[in-house]
User: What shape does this take?
Amino acid sequence: MPTKRLGKHPNAKVYILRRVTFVVAIVLTLAFIAKVTLGFFGVEYVSFELSGNAHYTEAQIYDILAEQLDNIVTDSEARTVTYLKEKLSYIKEARVSKHVMKRSLTIEITEREPFALLKFYEGFKTPPVPGTTADRESSFFLVDVDAHVLESIDVGKSGMPIDGRFRKMVTLVAAGDKLPKVGTVVQTSGVPLGVEILETSLLQQSGLATQIESIDASRSQQIKIQIEGLPLPVWIAEDAIASGLRHITLLLKQHKVRVLELLRAHPDATQPYLDARFEDSLYLGGYAETK
Assistant: This one.
């Protein structure tokens, strides 16, 4: 039987050419889409919508985003939120929506609010005595109700904040080995407790809260609260915060004049204090021993 020599199909080259052309077209299309996507956040293209910001301007937030353009495009919205919170200490929560085709970015921000001033002594185990030389070796920070550090505060030669607005805020006094870091929660003993005391006073004794100048909660059973117009601290304890604040309120209403008279009558007082740690009693102490 005669045999026939098998050869290539006459359209084989055309088929292969079409396949190659198709693959190249797909690659070029994907490359074009990738270029458009990666160029999404180019300054000249992006549509930026921001809401909820009070401390930061739109330009400040956009500058932070511009530092990580590629990552912001490829990362999830959750990662973008984390990045914003890491870079901008006032941001508490954020909601990010990306619209690649529209080339728009929408961010809804919830900012933290200043709650108290933190006076911190680095290298001390406990805060030094007020008025001493060591008392000036302190740094100031602004914290919110979660003891989250919002920013560091500049001080003058006197050791006090330069900006007078901060001097009107309640000061939390603390000491430790290392200074708090902006953008983190202060873990130093006494700071969260001091925040709790101030928050409790605002909720339960609002009149007293407006008169508190400073809170030193570095010793939980000997918390020192300095009251405006009272030249000595009042002591309360961690396990009796509510009753201690109530005693101080009653003191200011009923016995403040009497306390001032006693201080004037006893100039031998070295470091006078009022002890409000007991349920039904208020003690005046700090006198030098008489000979």
Q: What stands out?
A: The chain has a mean pLDDT of 81.
